[in-house]
What does this fold into?
Amino acid sequence: MRDVLSTLTRDVLFGPLDTPGRTEAVINRLRTAVALGVLADGAQLPSEVDLAAQFNVAPGTLREALSALREEGIVETRRGRGGGSFVRVPESLHVTHASALLSSMPPPEFRDLSDWRAAVAGASAQLAAERASDQDVGHLGSLAGSLAAAEDEATARRFDARFHIALAAAAQSRRLSTEAINLQVTYAPMLALVYADPEVRREGGARLAEVADCVRAGEAERARRVVTELTTDTARRLSRLRGRTAGAPGAGTEREEAR
It folds into this structure.
């Protein structure tokens, strides 16, 4: 299951684009691939021609995206023999990207995406409780524990993402899995802001462990309720951060707001 899930995640992140604003879409896809660990630090990207073909964009569009990522320190290009474009993961990547995404997203879009995330997670949890294998349940429990024990916001955000993708996969629905992965591009980067607080990480891990327990017990309605409440609470936290930083250069974090 995990190999299939990794393949699906890569297929979605590196699939053809069919939306306007393709340069920004390529940037977001590659940022998300780095954040999820699909592209590891030091990994070499495909050639510009091959990568442009995968995204179904013009080579010039891809070069614009790579240039922007180089300025952010996420991509490093080496010339000569053995050269190419390589992934770099700056420590500030996750919070900087999260702040920019939260502050720039129009309120109606934020509300709609929050509602959609809760709906996808709820449907995934309900179906997973009916269909998940023992291996699926064990994987969910492991991811929840890793989130609770995460030492920083970037790691926590990554395990949160993997949990929601794995939950959709346990529902045995390719469409739900695809939507869960798409949400990692459009919404989940902002979670780095709420996971800056260690207590939020521990609480989030505990609540996701409860979801895994519900799936194990086959309690479909309770699984839906618990994960929907969690995603709704997370949206409220983000909304508060957004409101408190309105007009500021960037959004704060849960840790900063608690000071």
About this structure: Residues 107-131 form the longest helix (25 residues).
